[in-house]
Structures are given as structure tokens and as C-alpha cells.
């Protein structure tokens, strides 16, 4: 990092507030608010450095793809429901050579499932406990199911270097550790609702197995 540059720390309050706003009526999810929350979560991966390199670049690519859809100001991509219906009706989901938003968001959502599980486990341990076991367990329950063996092996090995809960929060949250710890339970609660709504929509349209 260049001398004099300021570290941009992770803020769970920002994640909470954007996910809370993402919960719109009709059990739908606002895509812009979803991505704004995810951009803050991405800081967490960046601040952890090489430990999460197996997932961070992939997440950033998917965030950028979905942001491009939003930047076109297309009302069909306002919410997850309108996105799925639009791409389904126009047969974009199985169109060869076409990067569709529904598939991209589904892959991105798997990353959210991982970080929610990891942060939930962090909420259950003490400051002096190592975070490596929590991270490995969260990974094995979520993202590992979608990664080839070589990626899984490298990810698990990298996680052995992870610090204690106290040091991890200091690394990613800077001077506002307690502020982030205090909001963590509420952030997890709203994140679960976002996860459930999104998966329910993909269930409704039978899109969990998009190629």
C-alpha cells in the first residue's frame, strides 16, 4: 500500500443497511441494494488478502457483470423476480454464448452463503479462538460443493494461516471492531432473509441447476 494511503475497512452496518433495503415487497429482492451490500462484503475478502484469493477474483467478476446490467438502466433488472421473468420469457437462460444475469447471480449467491456461514460461526466463538476451523467448516458446507478438488485443497490449506477472532476483526474492521461486533447478529438475520428469498425465487422458477 502506498505511503499515506488510507485503508478502507469493512463495515457490517453498511452490509446490514443495504440488505435491509433490498427486501422489497412481494418477497422480492432489489438487485442494486443487493450488489451494494455485496461490494462491502467484497472488502472483507480483499482485506483478508491471499487467504481468500480462491474466491475473491471470481466474486468481483460476477459483481461487475451484474453491475453492467444495472448500468443499462433496464427496468427488467430492478429485482430478482423481474430479472428471472425477463430472461426466462426471452429465452436468454439457455442461449449459447450469452452471459445472462440469472446464472451470474446464482453463482454470486453461493459466495454469500459461504460468508454468511463463516460470519455466523465467528459470532459463536470467543476472541481468542482461531478462525481457521470456522472458515474451513463454512467452506466445506457451501462453496466447496461447487469447486474442483484442486481448488478445494488449496483453499483449505490457505485457511490454516487465519488468525484468532480478535485479530481477524482488527484486520478487517480497523478501529471500529466493537461497532461491527454489535451489529453482526442483526446483519446475519437480514442476510438470511435475503438468502432465503433469493433461493425461493430460484426454486419457484426451477433455476437452481442453471448450466
UniProtKB/TrEMBL annotation:
GO annotation (BP), single: negative regulation of interleukin-1 beta production
Molecular-function annotations in GO: ceramide 1-phosphate binding; ceramide 1-phosphate transfer activity
Cellular compartments per GO CC: cytosol; membrane
Taxonomy, superkingdom: Eukaryota
Domain Glycolipid transfer protein: 29-173
Name of a matching Pfam family: GLTP
Protein's recorded name: Glycolipid transfer protein domain-containing protein
Similarity field: Belongs to the GLTP family.
Gene3D superfamilies according to UniProt: Glycolipid transfer protein
Amino acid at each position: 500500500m502506498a505511503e499515506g494511503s488510507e485503508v478502507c475497512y469493512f463495515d457490517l452496518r453498511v452490509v446490514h443497511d443495504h440488505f435491509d433495503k433490498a427486501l422489497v415487497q412481494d418477497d422480492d429482492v432489489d438487485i442494486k441494494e443487493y450488489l451494494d451490500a455485496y461490494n462491502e462484503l467484497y472488502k472483507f475478502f480483499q482485506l483478508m488478502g491471499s487467504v481468500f484469493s480462491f474466491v475473491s477474483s471470481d466474486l468481483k467478476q460476477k459483481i461487475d457483470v451484474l453491475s453492467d446490467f444495472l448500468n443499462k438502466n433496464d427496468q427488467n433488472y430492478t429485482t430478482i423476480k423481474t430479472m428471472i421473468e425477463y430472461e426466462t420469457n426471452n429465452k436468454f437462460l439457455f442461449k449459447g454464448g450469452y452471459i445472462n444475469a440469472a446464472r451470474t447471480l446464482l453463482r454470486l449467491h453461493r459466495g454469500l452463503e459461504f460468508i454468511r456461514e463463516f460470519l455466523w460461526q465467528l459470532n459463536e466463538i470467543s476472541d481468542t479462538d482461531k478462525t481457521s476451523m470456522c472458515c474451513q467448516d463454512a467452506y466445506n458446507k457451501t462453496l466447496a460443493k461447487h469447486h474442483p478438488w484442486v481448488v478445494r485443497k488449496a483453499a483449505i490449506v490457505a485457511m490454516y494461516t487465519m488468525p484468532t477472532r480478535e485479530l481477524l476483526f482488527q484486520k478487517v474492521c480497523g478501529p471500529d471492531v466493537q461497532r461491527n461486533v454489535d451489529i453482526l447478529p442483526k446483519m446475519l438475520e437480514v442476510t438470511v432473509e435475503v438468502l432465503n428469498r433469493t433461493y425461493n425465487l430460484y426454486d419457484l422458477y426451477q433455476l437452481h441447476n442453471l448450466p
